[in-house]
Amino acid sequence: MKSLVRKHLQSLSPYRSARDEFEGEADVYLDANENPHEFEFNRYPDPYQRELKKKLGSIKGIEPSRLFFGNGSDEIIDLLVRTFCEPGQDAILTIVPGFSMYDVSAQVNQIQNDEFQLNEQFEFEVEDLLTTLKANHKIVFLCSPNNPTGNSIPMESIQKICDAAKGLVVVDEAYVDFSEAGSCIHKIQNKNLVVLQTFSKSYGSAGIRLGVGIMDPEIIAILNVVKLPYNVSEITQQHALALLDKYSKVQESIELIKQERERLRLALEQISVVDTVHPSDANFFLVKFVKARLVYEYLMSHGVVVRDRSKVVLCQCCLRITVGLPAENDRLIALLKEYTP
Residue 235: left if φ>0, alpha if ψ -120 to 50, beta else—which one? Predict the structure, then answer.
């Protein structure tokens, strides 16, 4: 993996504190110029989130050495691009329509983003995608279930891409807990596979900004050199640990969202201004309307915020609608039934 890293980073030494050289709990900490008085968060957080890795690894059946945490998945996406892609030389390959942050990171880091367009059903023939792979594609980004379309990529297609790619294959599974397709973390063993998950969706904790990367320890060792020393706060780590202690509540909420998703789908399909409700494995629907922008503005004027995706390729006249609480979905349905173009 090191050969894929940008050349000037291959010899970079990571920032190290005195606590990196100390095992266990010390009696006295006089190394980091902290305020020694008893404030709740007066000490720096664990830069490697060891306790959190151990607990999440136990739940997911993953070795802690394969886990990497970031300030949201956005940080991990940017870290991967910054670490492996040489500006003006390397490129990434993404599918469109897809999650926009891959392109944002590419632009910020002066990396070419080669886009592979899905068909009208938001799917692709894997052999067609493989023919577009180039030697300078350091990263292939796949979002499954895909945002904003909601559909999943077949596992066999992901496997073929991992087998063929010379660089990393990043599978963004932000919505995987809502899908019956399941994660690829235990199904694909390629060392170039990086799986991204998040606490923002199924864990109900978007506010703490915690992204999860599951990858080969060799890749993690490289990212640990490049990342900021304390990229995940102590507040975030403690909240996540407490959340994992009540993981059964997370699972219950996922099931409730999936049930509500089906109810919302059936209701939307009966509304006259709705053209198409695209199938979804996520906690949202991409919905095509007769006049999407007018519907969007109407909902906004009544205090209901959805996402207008009409300017995204293949998503003309489409709004992305999150599955809310039953009362929130009822409010949406009632407004759409009352709407007259």
Answer: alpha
Q: Are 1 and 191 in contact (CB under 8 A)?
A: yes
Do 286 and 205 share a structural domain?
no
- Tokens found for residue 275: 């053209």
132 membership: H or E segment, kind and range: helix 126-132
Omega before 217 cis (within 30°)?
A: no
Q: What is the pLDDT of residues 227-241, one digit of tens each?
A: 999 999 999 999 999
Does residue 206 sit in the same domain as residue 294? no
Q: How many domains does the chain have?
A: 2
User: Are the CB atoms for 208 and 236 separated by under 8 Å?
Assistant: yes
> Could you read off the pLDDT of 147-193 as tens digits, one per residue?
999 999 999 999 999 999 999 999 999 999 999 999 999 999 999 99
**Whether the model pTM is above 0.85:** yes
Pair (179, 40) in one structural domain: yes
* Best CA proximity match to 332, nearest among 282, 289, 278: 289
Six-digit token pair at 125?
């023939």
**Which of the 8 DSSP states describes residue 26?**
-
For 47, the domain range is 2-245
Strands, DSSP E only, in 67-125? 67-70, 91-96, 112-117
Query: Nearest 10 degrees: CA dihedral of 200, 201, 205, 206?
Result: 40
- Interatomic CA distance for residues 227 and 225, integer angstroms: 6
